[in-house]
Amino acid sequence: MSPPLHAQTRPVPEAAVLEGLPPVHEVSxxxxxxxxxxxxxxxxLDDDPTGTQTVADVPVLTSxxxxxxxxxxxxxxxxxxxxxxxxxxxxxxxxxRNREVVRALHAASAAEGTxxxxxxxxxxxxxxxxxxxxxxxxxxxxxxGAGAPDGVVLVPAYIEAGRLTVGSNHWMRTADGLLxxxxxxxxxxxxxxxxxxxxxxxxxxxxxxxxxxxxxxxxTLDDLRGGGPAHTARLLSSLRGGRTAVVDAVCDDDLRVLxxxxxxAEENGTRLVYRVGPSFVRARAGQAGRAPxxxxxxxxxxxxxxxxxxxxxxxxxxxxxxxxxxxxxxxxIAEYELDVALLLDEERRDAHIAEVAAxxxxxxxxxxxxxxxxxxxxxxxxxxxxxxxxxxxxxxLVEAVRQVNATRRPAFVVAKGGITSSDTATHxxxxxxxxxxxxxxxxxxxxxxxxxxxxxxxxxxxxxxNVGGADALADALDLLRSA
Length: 483
Hints:
alpha/beta, 39% helix
Protein backbone atom coordinates (compact mmCIF):
# COMPACT_ATOMS: atom_id res chain seq x y z
CA MET A 1 0.00 0.00 0.00
CA SER A 2 1.15 3.55 -0.72
CA PRO A 3 1.68 5.93 2.22
CA PRO A 4 -0.98 8.55 3.06
CA LEU A 5 -1.44 11.22 0.40
CA HIS A 6 -0.21 14.06 2.61
CA ALA A 7 3.09 12.19 3.02
CA GLN A 8 3.70 11.84 -0.72
CA THR A 9 6.55 13.90 -2.08
CA ARG A 10 7.46 11.75 -5.10
CA PRO A 11 5.65 9.48 -7.56
CA VAL A 12 4.46 6.07 -6.39
CA PRO A 13 3.78 2.99 -8.52
CA GLU A 14 0.39 3.22 -10.19
CA ALA A 15 -0.46 -0.29 -9.04
CA ALA A 16 -0.08 0.83 -5.41
CA VAL A 17 -2.76 3.49 -5.91
CA LEU A 18 -5.14 1.31 -7.90
CA GLU A 19 -4.86 -1.97 -6.02
CA GLY A 20 -7.95 -3.29 -4.29
CA LEU A 21 -10.44 -1.22 -6.28
CA PRO A 22 -13.88 -2.69 -7.00
CA PRO A 23 -14.38 -4.26 -10.45
CA VAL A 24 -15.40 -1.84 -13.18
CA HIS A 25 -19.14 -1.35 -13.73
CA GLU A 26 -19.29 -1.49 -17.53
CA VAL A 27 -21.48 1.01 -19.37
CA SER A 28 -21.31 1.54 -23.13
CA UNK A 29 -21.25 4.93 -24.81
CA UNK A 30 -24.30 3.81 -26.79
CA UNK A 31 -26.22 3.29 -23.55
CA UNK A 32 -25.45 6.85 -22.45
CA UNK A 33 -26.31 8.22 -25.92
CA UNK A 34 -29.69 6.50 -25.83
CA UNK A 35 -30.37 7.76 -22.28
CA UNK A 36 -29.67 11.42 -23.09
CA UNK A 37 -31.32 11.43 -26.53
CA UNK A 38 -33.85 14.23 -26.75
CA UNK A 39 -32.65 15.74 -23.49
CA UNK A 40 -30.99 19.10 -22.84
CA UNK A 41 -27.79 19.98 -24.68
CA UNK A 42 -24.53 19.90 -22.80
CA UNK A 43 -22.95 23.34 -23.27
CA UNK A 44 -19.28 23.41 -22.25
CA LEU A 45 -17.83 26.79 -21.34
CA ASP A 46 -14.18 26.03 -21.98
CA ASP A 47 -11.64 28.18 -20.14
CA ASP A 48 -9.08 27.36 -22.85
CA PRO A 49 -9.45 25.45 -26.14
CA THR A 50 -7.98 22.15 -24.99
CA GLY A 51 -11.22 20.69 -23.62
CA THR A 52 -12.17 19.44 -27.09
CA GLN A 53 -9.37 16.89 -27.21
CA THR A 54 -11.47 13.89 -26.15
CA VAL A 55 -14.41 14.36 -28.54
CA ALA A 56 -15.01 14.25 -32.28
CA ASP A 57 -17.38 15.98 -34.70
CA VAL A 58 -18.77 18.55 -32.27
CA PRO A 59 -19.32 22.29 -32.85
CA VAL A 60 -16.98 24.84 -31.30
CA LEU A 61 -17.70 28.55 -30.92
CA THR A 62 -15.21 31.27 -30.13
CA SER A 63 -17.99 33.87 -30.26
CA UNK A 64 -21.17 33.84 -28.19
CA UNK A 65 -23.65 36.06 -29.98
CA UNK A 66 -27.20 34.76 -29.87
CA UNK A 67 -26.91 33.88 -33.57
CA UNK A 68 -23.71 31.88 -33.02
CA UNK A 69 -25.28 30.00 -30.13
CA UNK A 70 -28.43 29.30 -32.14
CA UNK A 71 -26.24 27.86 -34.90
CA UNK A 72 -24.61 25.50 -32.41
CA UNK A 73 -27.93 24.53 -30.81
CA UNK A 74 -29.32 23.82 -34.28
CA UNK A 75 -26.66 21.20 -35.00
CA UNK A 76 -27.68 17.62 -34.31
CA UNK A 77 -25.17 17.05 -31.53
CA UNK A 78 -25.50 16.31 -27.81
CA UNK A 79 -22.73 18.76 -26.89
CA UNK A 80 -20.98 21.87 -28.10
CA UNK A 81 -18.17 24.05 -26.79
CA UNK A 82 -18.01 27.78 -26.21
CA UNK A 83 -14.41 28.93 -25.95
CA UNK A 84 -14.40 31.58 -23.21
CA UNK A 85 -10.62 31.58 -22.63
CA UNK A 86 -11.26 32.78 -19.08
CA UNK A 87 -8.12 31.16 -17.69
CA UNK A 88 -6.19 34.01 -19.31
CA UNK A 89 -8.42 36.72 -17.78
CA UNK A 90 -8.54 38.52 -14.47
CA UNK A 91 -11.21 37.31 -12.05
CA UNK A 92 -13.39 40.33 -12.83
CA UNK A 93 -13.17 39.84 -16.58
CA UNK A 94 -13.69 36.08 -16.27
CA UNK A 95 -16.86 36.66 -14.27
CA UNK A 96 -18.16 39.19 -16.80
CA ARG A 97 -17.50 36.85 -19.71
CA ASN A 98 -19.31 33.95 -18.06
CA ARG A 99 -22.30 36.21 -17.46
CA GLU A 100 -22.35 37.30 -21.11
CA VAL A 101 -22.30 33.74 -22.37
CA VAL A 102 -25.06 32.50 -20.08
CA ARG A 103 -27.36 35.40 -20.90
CA ALA A 104 -26.89 34.94 -24.65
CA LEU A 105 -27.28 31.16 -24.31
CA HIS A 106 -30.51 31.56 -22.39
CA ALA A 107 -31.91 33.76 -25.18
CA ALA A 108 -30.73 31.35 -27.88
CA SER A 109 -32.18 28.40 -25.99
CA ALA A 110 -35.58 30.10 -25.79
CA ALA A 111 -35.49 30.94 -29.49
CA GLU A 112 -34.60 27.36 -30.47
CA GLY A 113 -36.84 25.69 -27.90
CA THR A 114 -33.90 23.62 -26.69
CA UNK A 115 -32.89 23.06 -23.07
CA UNK A 116 -29.31 23.09 -21.84
CA UNK A 117 -27.11 22.07 -18.93
CA UNK A 118 -23.86 23.92 -18.20
CA UNK A 119 -20.37 22.52 -17.75
CA UNK A 120 -17.52 24.81 -16.77
CA UNK A 121 -14.45 23.07 -18.20
CA UNK A 122 -11.29 23.64 -16.17
CA UNK A 123 -7.80 22.21 -16.18
CA UNK A 124 -7.31 18.58 -15.15
CA UNK A 125 -4.35 19.74 -13.07
CA UNK A 126 -6.75 22.02 -11.13
CA UNK A 127 -5.73 25.40 -12.49
CA UNK A 128 -8.37 28.01 -13.30
CA UNK A 129 -10.99 30.31 -11.78
CA UNK A 130 -12.69 28.03 -9.28
CA UNK A 131 -15.02 28.61 -7.47
CA UNK A 132 -15.57 31.94 -9.22
CA UNK A 133 -16.86 30.47 -12.49
CA UNK A 134 -19.34 28.02 -11.01
CA UNK A 135 -20.49 30.71 -8.55
CA UNK A 136 -21.19 33.08 -11.44
CA UNK A 137 -23.03 30.42 -13.44
CA UNK A 138 -25.23 29.66 -10.43
CA UNK A 139 -25.99 33.35 -9.92
CA UNK A 140 -26.90 33.91 -13.57
CA UNK A 141 -29.12 30.82 -13.79
CA UNK A 142 -30.93 32.01 -10.68
CA UNK A 143 -31.39 35.55 -12.01
CA UNK A 144 -32.61 34.27 -15.39
CA GLY A 145 -35.30 32.20 -13.71
CA ALA A 146 -33.74 28.85 -14.60
CA GLY A 147 -33.52 27.92 -10.94
CA ALA A 148 -30.67 27.99 -8.46
CA PRO A 149 -28.46 24.89 -8.87
CA ASP A 150 -28.79 22.32 -6.10
CA GLY A 151 -25.18 21.29 -6.49
CA VAL A 152 -21.83 21.68 -8.24
CA VAL A 153 -20.29 18.42 -9.48
CA LEU A 154 -16.48 18.49 -9.66
CA VAL A 155 -14.94 15.87 -11.99
CA PRO A 156 -11.36 16.88 -12.99
CA ALA A 157 -10.25 13.47 -14.34
CA TYR A 158 -8.54 13.30 -17.72
CA ILE A 159 -8.12 9.60 -18.36
CA GLU A 160 -5.92 9.73 -21.46
CA ALA A 161 -3.45 12.14 -19.88
CA GLY A 162 -3.25 10.11 -16.65
CA ARG A 163 -5.12 12.52 -14.36
CA LEU A 164 -7.02 10.12 -12.10
CA THR A 165 -9.12 10.54 -8.96
CA VAL A 166 -9.15 7.74 -6.38
CA GLY A 167 -10.65 8.05 -2.91
CA SER A 168 -11.31 11.76 -3.64
CA ASN A 169 -7.54 12.25 -4.14
CA HIS A 170 -6.33 13.57 -7.48
CA TRP A 171 -3.22 12.13 -9.13
CA MET A 172 -1.22 12.74 -12.30
CA ARG A 173 0.73 10.11 -14.18
CA THR A 174 4.45 10.72 -14.69
CA ALA A 175 7.21 8.59 -16.16
CA ASP A 176 8.02 7.44 -12.61
CA GLY A 177 4.48 6.68 -11.42
CA LEU A 178 1.51 8.60 -10.02
CA LEU A 179 2.19 11.93 -8.31
CA UNK A 180 -0.32 13.84 -6.15
CA UNK A 181 -1.20 16.93 -8.19
CA UNK A 182 -0.45 19.17 -5.23
CA UNK A 183 3.20 18.12 -5.60
CA UNK A 184 3.34 18.87 -9.34
CA UNK A 185 4.76 21.89 -11.15
CA UNK A 186 1.18 22.88 -11.99
CA UNK A 187 0.39 23.37 -8.31
CA UNK A 188 3.11 26.05 -8.26
CA UNK A 189 1.41 28.04 -11.03
CA UNK A 190 2.05 31.77 -10.52
CA UNK A 191 -1.65 32.61 -10.93
CA UNK A 192 -3.59 29.48 -9.92
CA UNK A 193 -1.28 27.71 -7.48
CA UNK A 194 -2.55 25.46 -4.69
CA UNK A 195 -1.37 22.89 -2.11
CA UNK A 196 -4.05 20.24 -1.71
CA UNK A 197 -4.30 16.99 -3.69
CA UNK A 198 -7.38 15.81 -1.78
CA UNK A 199 -10.30 17.31 -3.71
CA UNK A 200 -12.44 18.14 -0.65
CA UNK A 201 -9.45 19.89 0.92
CA UNK A 202 -8.73 21.62 -2.40
CA UNK A 203 -12.31 22.92 -2.45
CA UNK A 204 -11.87 24.24 1.09
CA UNK A 205 -8.55 25.83 0.10
CA UNK A 206 -9.92 27.47 -3.04
CA UNK A 207 -13.07 28.76 -1.35
CA UNK A 208 -11.09 30.21 1.53
CA UNK A 209 -12.94 27.96 3.96
CA UNK A 210 -16.41 28.93 2.76
CA UNK A 211 -16.95 25.29 1.81
CA UNK A 212 -15.29 23.08 4.45
CA UNK A 213 -13.82 19.78 3.33
CA UNK A 214 -16.20 17.81 5.50
CA UNK A 215 -19.14 19.52 3.80
CA UNK A 216 -18.20 18.15 0.37
CA UNK A 217 -20.08 15.09 -0.93
CA UNK A 218 -17.62 12.38 -1.98
CA UNK A 219 -18.72 10.09 -4.81
CA THR A 220 -16.17 7.29 -4.75
CA LEU A 221 -15.36 4.33 -6.94
CA ASP A 222 -17.22 2.18 -4.41
CA ASP A 223 -20.32 4.24 -5.21
CA LEU A 224 -19.85 4.23 -8.98
CA ARG A 225 -18.79 0.61 -9.36
CA GLY A 226 -20.51 -1.03 -6.42
CA GLY A 227 -23.72 0.98 -6.33
CA GLY A 228 -23.97 1.80 -10.03
CA PRO A 229 -26.04 4.56 -11.70
CA ALA A 230 -29.13 4.26 -9.49
CA HIS A 231 -27.18 4.51 -6.22
CA THR A 232 -25.04 7.36 -7.57
CA ALA A 233 -28.16 9.20 -8.76
CA ARG A 234 -29.58 9.01 -5.23
CA LEU A 235 -26.37 10.54 -3.87
CA LEU A 236 -26.46 13.37 -6.39
CA SER A 237 -30.15 13.95 -5.75
CA SER A 238 -29.28 14.67 -2.11
CA LEU A 239 -27.42 17.84 -3.08
CA ARG A 240 -29.05 21.04 -1.87
CA GLY A 241 -28.12 24.70 -1.61
CA GLY A 242 -25.31 24.55 -4.17
CA ARG A 243 -23.35 21.91 -2.25
CA THR A 244 -20.21 20.62 -3.98
CA ALA A 245 -19.70 16.96 -4.89
CA VAL A 246 -16.33 15.50 -5.96
CA VAL A 247 -16.27 12.38 -8.11
CA ASP A 248 -13.68 9.63 -8.55
CA ALA A 249 -12.75 8.33 -12.01
CA VAL A 250 -10.08 5.97 -13.31
CA CYS A 251 -11.62 4.90 -16.64
CA ASP A 252 -14.35 5.92 -19.08
CA ASP A 253 -16.81 3.41 -17.59
CA ASP A 254 -16.64 5.29 -14.27
CA LEU A 255 -17.59 8.48 -16.06
CA ARG A 256 -20.36 6.80 -18.04
CA VAL A 257 -21.88 5.49 -14.80
CA LEU A 258 -21.78 9.10 -13.61
CA UNK A 259 -23.39 10.29 -16.86
CA UNK A 260 -26.33 7.91 -16.41
CA UNK A 261 -26.66 8.95 -12.77
CA UNK A 262 -26.66 12.64 -13.67
CA UNK A 263 -29.33 12.10 -16.32
CA UNK A 264 -31.52 10.32 -13.77
CA ALA A 265 -30.98 12.90 -11.02
CA GLU A 266 -31.69 15.79 -13.37
CA GLU A 267 -34.75 14.10 -14.82
CA ASN A 268 -36.05 13.87 -11.25
CA GLY A 269 -35.60 17.62 -10.79
CA THR A 270 -32.10 18.04 -9.34
CA ARG A 271 -30.44 21.09 -10.90
CA LEU A 272 -26.68 20.76 -11.34
CA VAL A 273 -23.70 22.67 -12.72
CA TYR A 274 -20.53 20.79 -13.63
CA ARG A 275 -16.87 21.73 -13.18
CA VAL A 276 -14.97 19.16 -15.19
CA GLY A 277 -11.87 17.98 -17.02
CA PRO A 278 -11.94 16.84 -20.65
CA SER A 279 -12.85 13.17 -20.19
CA PHE A 280 -16.21 13.88 -18.56
CA VAL A 281 -17.43 15.70 -21.66
CA ARG A 282 -17.02 12.68 -23.91
CA ALA A 283 -18.75 10.38 -21.43
CA ARG A 284 -21.64 12.80 -20.74
CA ALA A 285 -22.14 13.32 -24.49
CA GLY A 286 -22.44 9.59 -25.13
CA GLN A 287 -19.34 9.39 -27.32
CA ALA A 288 -16.92 6.49 -27.34
CA GLY A 289 -13.20 7.06 -27.55
CA ARG A 290 -12.02 7.27 -31.14
CA ALA A 291 -8.73 6.43 -32.76
CA PRO A 292 -6.62 9.37 -33.94
CA UNK A 293 -7.32 10.80 -37.37
CA UNK A 294 -5.57 8.96 -40.20
CA UNK A 295 -3.60 10.52 -43.06
CA UNK A 296 -6.52 9.69 -45.38
CA UNK A 297 -8.92 11.58 -43.09
CA UNK A 298 -6.53 14.50 -42.75
CA UNK A 299 -5.81 14.90 -46.44
CA UNK A 300 -9.11 16.56 -47.47
CA UNK A 301 -8.85 18.94 -44.49
CA UNK A 302 -5.34 20.17 -45.22
CA UNK A 303 -4.65 23.43 -46.99
CA UNK A 304 -2.62 23.20 -50.18
CA UNK A 305 -1.61 26.85 -50.08
CA UNK A 306 1.96 26.01 -49.10
CA UNK A 307 3.72 22.70 -48.50
CA UNK A 308 4.44 23.37 -44.84
CA UNK A 309 2.76 24.39 -41.62
CA UNK A 310 3.22 26.82 -38.74
CA UNK A 311 3.84 25.74 -35.15
CA UNK A 312 3.28 28.38 -32.47
CA UNK A 313 4.64 27.68 -28.99
CA UNK A 314 3.75 29.78 -25.97
CA UNK A 315 3.65 27.17 -23.19
CA UNK A 316 6.53 27.32 -20.71
CA UNK A 317 6.04 24.07 -18.81
CA UNK A 318 8.99 21.69 -18.73
CA UNK A 319 7.15 19.11 -20.84
CA UNK A 320 6.76 21.56 -23.72
CA UNK A 321 10.48 22.33 -23.64
CA UNK A 322 11.28 18.60 -23.84
CA UNK A 323 8.86 18.21 -26.74
CA UNK A 324 10.54 21.07 -28.58
CA UNK A 325 13.91 19.41 -28.08
CA UNK A 326 12.64 16.17 -29.67
CA UNK A 327 11.11 18.10 -32.54
CA UNK A 328 14.49 19.69 -33.26
CA UNK A 329 16.15 16.27 -33.23
CA UNK A 330 13.83 15.01 -35.98
CA UNK A 331 14.53 18.03 -38.15
CA UNK A 332 12.62 19.66 -40.99
CA ILE A 333 11.83 22.86 -39.09
CA ALA A 334 12.92 26.48 -39.20
CA GLU A 335 12.78 28.05 -35.75
CA TYR A 336 12.23 31.68 -34.77
CA GLU A 337 12.17 33.17 -31.29
CA LEU A 338 10.07 36.00 -29.91
CA ASP A 339 12.19 37.45 -27.14
CA VAL A 340 9.92 38.19 -24.16
CA ALA A 341 12.16 41.05 -23.03
CA LEU A 342 11.68 42.76 -26.41
CA LEU A 343 7.93 42.05 -26.34
CA LEU A 344 7.67 43.98 -23.07
CA ASP A 345 9.64 46.91 -24.58
CA GLU A 346 7.07 49.26 -26.17
CA GLU A 347 9.59 50.87 -28.54
CA ARG A 348 10.97 47.62 -29.97
CA ARG A 349 7.97 45.29 -29.72
CA ASP A 350 6.26 45.88 -33.11
CA ALA A 351 9.45 45.73 -35.16
CA HIS A 352 10.52 42.52 -33.43
CA ILE A 353 7.16 40.82 -34.14
CA ALA A 354 7.22 41.91 -37.79
CA GLU A 355 10.77 40.63 -38.26
CA VAL A 356 9.97 37.20 -36.82
CA ALA A 357 6.70 36.89 -38.78
CA ALA A 358 8.36 37.79 -42.08
CA UNK A 359 11.12 35.25 -41.53
CA UNK A 360 8.64 32.49 -40.63
CA UNK A 361 6.43 33.22 -43.65
CA UNK A 362 9.45 33.08 -45.91
CA UNK A 363 10.43 29.67 -44.54
CA UNK A 364 7.10 27.96 -45.28
CA UNK A 365 8.07 26.85 -48.80
CA UNK A 366 11.02 24.86 -47.51
CA UNK A 367 10.24 23.84 -43.89
CA UNK A 368 7.66 23.80 -41.14
CA UNK A 369 8.14 27.07 -39.27
CA UNK A 370 8.22 27.25 -35.47
CA UNK A 371 7.57 30.55 -33.72
CA UNK A 372 8.21 30.26 -30.00
CA UNK A 373 8.68 32.55 -27.06
CA UNK A 374 12.00 32.60 -25.26
CA UNK A 375 12.13 29.74 -22.77
CA UNK A 376 12.92 31.81 -19.66
CA UNK A 377 9.62 32.40 -17.88
CA UNK A 378 9.07 36.03 -16.92
CA UNK A 379 6.75 36.51 -13.94
CA UNK A 380 5.34 39.63 -12.34
CA UNK A 381 5.24 40.93 -8.80
CA UNK A 382 1.99 39.07 -8.08
CA UNK A 383 -0.53 36.73 -9.71
CA UNK A 384 -2.38 39.50 -11.56
CA UNK A 385 0.87 40.97 -12.88
CA UNK A 386 2.04 37.54 -14.06
CA UNK A 387 -1.25 37.00 -15.87
CA UNK A 388 -0.92 40.41 -17.55
CA UNK A 389 2.56 39.49 -18.80
CA UNK A 390 1.21 36.18 -20.15
CA UNK A 391 -1.52 38.02 -22.03
CA UNK A 392 0.96 40.48 -23.52
CA UNK A 393 3.24 37.69 -24.72
CA UNK A 394 0.29 35.75 -26.12
CA UNK A 395 -0.88 38.86 -27.99
CA UNK A 396 2.52 39.05 -29.67
CA LEU A 397 2.31 35.42 -30.79
CA VAL A 398 -1.17 36.09 -32.14
CA GLU A 399 0.01 39.10 -34.11
CA ALA A 400 2.87 37.08 -35.57
CA VAL A 401 0.40 34.38 -36.70
CA ARG A 402 -1.89 36.99 -38.23
CA GLN A 403 0.99 38.49 -40.19
CA VAL A 404 2.23 35.08 -41.38
CA ASN A 405 -1.23 34.04 -42.58
CA ALA A 406 -1.73 37.38 -44.36
CA THR A 407 1.56 36.86 -46.20
CA ARG A 408 1.48 33.14 -46.92
CA ARG A 409 -1.24 30.71 -45.81
CA PRO A 410 0.29 27.74 -44.00
CA ALA A 411 -0.84 24.17 -44.71
CA PHE A 412 -1.83 23.85 -41.04
CA VAL A 413 -1.35 25.68 -37.75
CA VAL A 414 -0.36 23.98 -34.49
CA ALA A 415 -0.76 26.05 -31.31
CA LYS A 416 1.07 24.79 -28.20
CA GLY A 417 -0.31 26.01 -24.87
CA GLY A 418 -3.77 26.85 -23.56
CA ILE A 419 -3.77 30.65 -23.72
CA THR A 420 -1.72 30.50 -26.91
CA SER A 421 -4.17 28.21 -28.67
CA SER A 422 -7.18 30.27 -27.63
CA ASP A 423 -5.76 33.62 -28.68
CA THR A 424 -4.37 32.20 -31.93
CA ALA A 425 -7.79 30.79 -32.83
CA THR A 426 -9.85 33.86 -32.00
CA HIS A 427 -7.51 36.68 -32.98
CA UNK A 428 -4.69 35.28 -35.07
CA UNK A 429 -6.93 33.21 -37.39
CA UNK A 430 -10.28 34.87 -36.58
CA UNK A 431 -12.11 31.57 -36.12
CA UNK A 432 -15.73 32.07 -34.97
CA UNK A 433 -17.32 28.70 -35.72
CA UNK A 434 -15.54 25.39 -36.18
CA UNK A 435 -15.91 21.64 -35.85
CA UNK A 436 -13.65 19.64 -33.57
CA UNK A 437 -13.02 16.69 -35.91
CA UNK A 438 -10.91 14.43 -33.71
CA UNK A 439 -7.38 14.04 -32.40
CA UNK A 440 -3.88 13.53 -33.75
CA UNK A 441 -2.81 11.39 -30.78
CA UNK A 442 -4.94 9.10 -28.60
CA UNK A 443 -7.25 11.30 -26.53
CA UNK A 444 -5.08 14.40 -26.86
CA UNK A 445 -4.27 17.11 -29.44
CA UNK A 446 -7.53 18.22 -31.05
CA UNK A 447 -7.94 19.20 -34.69
CA UNK A 448 -10.48 21.89 -35.55
CA UNK A 449 -11.93 22.53 -39.00
CA UNK A 450 -12.80 26.26 -39.22
CA UNK A 451 -16.16 26.87 -40.87
CA UNK A 452 -15.44 30.27 -42.40
CA UNK A 453 -13.21 33.33 -42.25
CA UNK A 454 -9.50 33.66 -43.11
CA UNK A 455 -8.68 30.28 -41.56
CA UNK A 456 -11.17 28.26 -43.65
CA UNK A 457 -9.23 25.42 -45.25
CA UNK A 458 -6.46 25.51 -42.64
CA UNK A 459 -6.61 22.70 -40.06
CA UNK A 460 -6.08 24.16 -36.62
CA UNK A 461 -4.43 21.91 -34.04
CA UNK A 462 -4.96 22.63 -30.34
CA UNK A 463 -2.08 21.19 -28.31
CA UNK A 464 -2.14 21.74 -24.55
CA UNK A 465 1.14 22.50 -22.82
CA ASN A 466 0.78 19.77 -20.22
CA VAL A 467 -0.09 16.63 -22.24
CA GLY A 468 1.76 13.89 -24.11
CA GLY A 469 5.19 12.37 -23.81
CA ALA A 470 8.47 13.87 -24.97
CA ASP A 471 7.84 12.73 -28.57
CA ALA A 472 4.23 13.90 -28.80
CA LEU A 473 4.81 17.16 -30.67
CA ALA A 474 7.14 15.50 -33.17
CA ASP A 475 4.70 12.60 -33.63
CA ALA A 476 1.79 14.96 -34.28
CA LEU A 477 3.84 16.85 -36.83
CA ASP A 478 4.85 13.61 -38.57
CA LEU A 479 1.16 12.72 -38.94
CA LEU A 480 0.35 16.13 -40.41
CA ARG A 481 3.26 15.79 -42.83
CA SER A 482 2.08 12.36 -43.92
CA ALA A 483 -1.18 13.94 -45.11
